[in-house]
Amino acid sequence: MVDRSEEQPREETPLTPPPAEPSASSVLGQAFGAAAKRAGLDPSQSTSTGAAVWSAIGGVRGIVESVLPLVVFLVSLTIWPDNNLIAVIASVAAAGVFTVARLAQKQAPSAALGGLVAVGVAGALVLFTGRAEDNFIPGFVTNVLYGSAFLVSAVAGWSIIGLAVGFLMDDGIAWRKDRRKRRVFFWLAIMWAALFFLRLAVQFPMWLAGGDDIVQVLGTVKLVMGIPLFAPLVAVTWLAARAAYGDRK
């Protein structure tokens, strides 16, 4: 028989602790940062402000995708003022062309597909209520949601802009410990909230007031308050975010 009395006890290998679950701030920062990066707004990359803004609006195609469905809707109602169906079909078709084109070119169709869904929902609402001006209701809802998200994030000290830039600059949420960065990202979020609430404050009362030409007037105002306001704010955000990190690459 073998004497095992003097055998050394085996050393137990310590268990490796499971990886920590990612925090909500990390998940949100990654999501916002990834969205900004897809739009070409990565402050860690060396590019000009003009190029960043042009990328954010999607270039010529992005501008056309943004404005053409609404323009087609307005023109159709001008030609056939009593036929909402034609206007809806024409605007949805205009948005659908971009989605098909992106799919055919094997490009990411997310932007055009999102626009197609938005145009489709607005068109369905017009056909349901019989009021052409109700085409603008989804835009009002979007402005409320986006404006509230930016405002709440700023007031809570977790600026959406800060979360996105912190992720892109490999800074995580360390920016919250820097008073200067925290102030910059606070005001940037406030500015974006102001943009969305300004659109709502101007357009919603017009929609409530109604009138014979309200669709054309409201459509024109929406176009003027779209890219012409969006692009300069993108430029300010880009410059401020880069300045907050100085010469860091």
Automatic annotation (TrEMBL):
Name this polypeptide is given: DUF3159 domain-containing protein
Top-level taxon in the UniProt lineage: Bacteria
Region spans: Disordered: 1-26
Organism, scientific name: Microbacterium sorbitolivorans
Compositional bias segments (type: Basic and acidic residues): 1-13
Pfam families membership: DUF3159
Keyword vocabulary terms for this entry: Membrane, Transmembrane, Transmembrane helix
Annotated TM spans: 62-80, 86-104, 111-132, 144-168, 184-202, 214-241
Lineage: Bacteria, Bacillati, Actinomycetota, Actinomycetes, Micrococcales
